[in-house]
Amino acid sequence: MKMKQYIFFASMVFTLFGLNAQQDPHFTQYFDNTLFVNPAYAGSKGVMNITGIHREQWVGFDGRPRSSTFSIHSPLNYESVGVGFTMVNDEAGPVKQTMMYGDFSYTLRFKDSDHKLAFGLKAGMNIINVGTSTLQTTDPNDPKLLTNVTNRVNPNFGLGVYYHSSKLFAGFSIPKFVQRSYDGLSSTSLEKRHYYFIFGGVVPVNAQWKIRPSAQIKMTAGAPMSFDISSAGIYQDKLWFGLMYRIASAFGVFAQYQITPQFKLGVASDFGTQQIRNYNYGTFEMLASYDFVFKKQGIRSPRYF
Questions:
Q1: Tens digit of pLDDT for each residue in 121-155?
Q2: What are phi and psi of 283, to 5 degrees?
Q3: What is the pTM of this model?
Q4: Which of 3.20.20.370, 2.102.10.10, 3.40.50.300, 2.40.160.40 would CATH assign to domain 3-292?
Q5: Is the CB of residue 288 less than 8 Å from the CB of residue 268?
Q6: Which residues are CB-contacts of 157 (< 8 A; sequence separation ≥ 6)?
């Protein structure tokens, strides 16, 4: 095993089994993945939406993180209620997680305004596998590396609040509230509680262009705060060009195209600002999103978040 691979795997294991750190995956196109972190987002688009994102992080690095997320959500006939489902498959070195959650939201509407305030709840589970026996280590008797974790099921629940209108949005959420052990035994290798703040809006520039700034803050005990800032230029409500900066971590670019009022595709890439950037070719994402229209009035367009 190459030295850089050993260092990576060792850091992954100690992160999971000895230290507190951020564990939920990052996405450059986080603004299209809001349901994963905030259940109050369910049904906010006014139609049934399906979105999928696949992320390949640190391409060229063996054991690199890989994350795929799928979400579906919709308002019910009583439109104050929204429901959804999210699933995330996340791999990093010897660690594989599959998170599956159902989402529920209830929305309050403001009189004579398009402003809305939604409250959400999610419940589900995380299925964890850790193949520590596949690692090459300097100490084969290290007690933290002797036992594999196979299909450990950690049930959990989360909650969130989401405020939005046609021009702005803001939300706060805790997607996994209970801090459970990865192996059922350790008091330190826990699924840590993450706190998310997300906010943004859309600003008209002229008849052709709009600017949509947004930001996401993620905090958890024992790890530096993650702060993502992005801004997208929107041309004729169809073509999106954007930049993203994750403070002290990475910068990225993304482009999205609204092929039809219902169907959108996106690509993104980001590059780390830390020394590990010297050992990989960057990070890449692909996105697809589709809105289903079942009502005669059609889809509410354009849609910015």
A1: 999 999 999 876 666 666 666 655 556 788 999 99
A2: -125, 140
A3: 0.86
A4: 2.40.160.40
A5: no
A6: 121, 122, 123, 124, 176, 177, 178
